[in-house]
Amino acid sequence: MMSTMHEGTKYLTIGEVADRLGISAPTLRYWEERGLLRPAARQSGRRLYGATELRRIALIRIWQESGMLSLDEIATVLAGRTETGHWRETVHGRLAAIDEQIDRLGRARVYLVHYLDCPRDRPAEECPVVHREVDAYLDA
């Protein structure tokens, strides 16, 4: 890795960060445009990132890859308390959405397990449990 020394501190160029963390340079520039990230320094017009920025990038990736937070939510959490809101509200909202998704997935799992366990060859057409589920859906 071709690290750059800048005022005694070790920095990585945008390309080095992209290679190291498996993120494209355009993505890093986009995050900068969105206010999620700022280079620690610039040298001859090149963005330079230090340890603090690498940790921030890693955190953004963790939140994004897990599907835990959208970029807008990440921006809010990183901003902390602002005039228009508080990061805790964003996290509470995301937790509620995750709980709802867990509930839906649990119901889907029960339903699909029943399909696998159903002795009928065509459960969609022949299974009385499936018929009751469909009727309940239609009545709702």
From TrEMBL:
Top-rank taxon, per record: Bacteria
Pfam families: MerR_1
Keyword presence, Transit peptide: no
HTH merR-type domain location: 11-80
Keyword annotations from UniProtKB, A to Z: DNA-binding
Glycosyltransferase is among the record's keywords: no
PANTHER family: MERR FAMILY REGULATORY PROTEIN (PTHR30204:SF97), REDOX-CYCLING DRUG-SENSING TRANSCRIPTIONAL ACTIVATOR SOXR (PTHR30204)
Name of the featured protein: HTH merR-type domain-containing protein
Upper classification of the organism: Bacteria, Bacillati, Actinomycetota, Actinomycetes, Kitasatosporales
